[in-house]
Write a structure and sequence with these properties.
By secondary structure, the protein is of the alpha/beta class. It has one domain: Rossmann fold (3-Layer(aba) Sandwich). The protein is built from 6 helices and 11 strands. The strands form 2 sheets. Strands 2-1-3-4-11-10-9-6-7 form a 9-stranded mixed beta sheet. The chain has a two-stranded antiparallel ribbon with strand order 5-8. A hairpin with a 2-residue loop joins strand 10 and strand 11. It is globular.
Length: 276
């Protein structure tokens, strides 16, 4: 079982539909992103302010526009049309007030929008099937904050191309375990459980000694990239981690096509995904 699941996930590396080369040709001056940081009831990360600063500074460095908000009222068709990528930075739990806001988010993705999710974003809207499918999984549990190693699986991906084959989280991070994982994910990096300290019965061995930590996929008309890394607030001032996020944004932008709302069909958060 472990081998078959790992094979299914890692086979995504061979998918030509990833279009990695497209992500390298970004015309940054035409790009605008929204950093969304809403948290529902529960734990709120203290890294959120740093993450906003980091992405805004990347915007200044590369010439793209950055808005930031924690107000779910920004989720309307008219407002979202201006953005190439929506970045859920350490969102957690319920982050929308109404189903109309959820539908606007769905329609944005269906129109061809990009999605970037960072760290605890995998704990967002945990009971919403469509969101879990978009992100690719749902947060389950994390080990205590400690040093561990991340093994790069696809070194050609722009979010990890600048890193060594083994990315040492020497200052510590949270080793995430997730569930309800899609089997068509393009796995970019995996956490190495053999580099964790001690034993813990809560650790999942779904994939043997590793667990996927960075991935991307195309979903419901849009492009989704996720990293489970980034708990510590100081990482958002780390050049390697900033490049990691920038590469995720690059990939989510893809060819940079204009949104096509003629392809958006959602009328309810419970709508099933249509084949394209």
């Amino acid at each position: 079982m472990h081998i078959s699941w790992l094979t299914a996930l890692l086979s995504g590396i061979l998918m030509l539909s990833i279009h990695q080369a497209d992500a390298q040709k970004v015309k940054w001056s035409k790009i605008k992103v929204l950093v969304y940081t809403k948290n529902g009831k529960g734990y709120v990360h203290d890294n959120i302010p740093n993450s906003i600063v980091a992405i805004k500074e990347l915007g200044k460095q590369y010439g793209f526009e950055v808005d930031a908000s924690e107000d779910p009222a920004v989720f309307t068709d008219d407002n979202l049309k201006q953005y190439n990528v929506l970045i859920f930075s350490n969102t957690n739990n319920v982050v929308f007030d109404t189903d109309a806001q959820r539908v606007a988010f769905m329609r944005y993705i269906q129109a061809g929008g990009g999605f970037v999710a960072i760290h605890s974003a995998s704990g967002t809207e945990r009971d919403w099937k469509w969101f879990k499918q978009l992100l690719g999984a749902k947060f389950y549990w994390h080990d205590k904050n400690q040093p561990f190693t991340v093994n790069i699986v696809d070194h050609n991906h722009p979010s990890v191309a600048h890193l060594q084959k083994r990315w040492q989280r020497s200052r510590g991070d949270e080793f995430y375990y997730l569930k309800e994982m899609a089997v068509n994910l393009h796995v970019i990096a995996v956490n190495d459980a053999t580099t964790l300290a001690g034993e813990n019965p809560n650790r999942l061995d779904t994939f043997g000694d590793v667990f996927p930590s960075v991935w991307c996929h195309e979903f419901d008309g849009g492009r989704s990239w996720y990293t489970s890394l980034g708990h510590n607030k100081e990482y958002y001032f780390d050049e390697d981690f900033r490049k990691h996020i920038l590469g995720g944004i690059k990939w989510a932008i893809g060819k940079g096509k204009k949104l096509d709302y003629n392809k958006a069909y959602a009328t309810s958060p419970q709508d099933e995904v249509r084949e394209r």
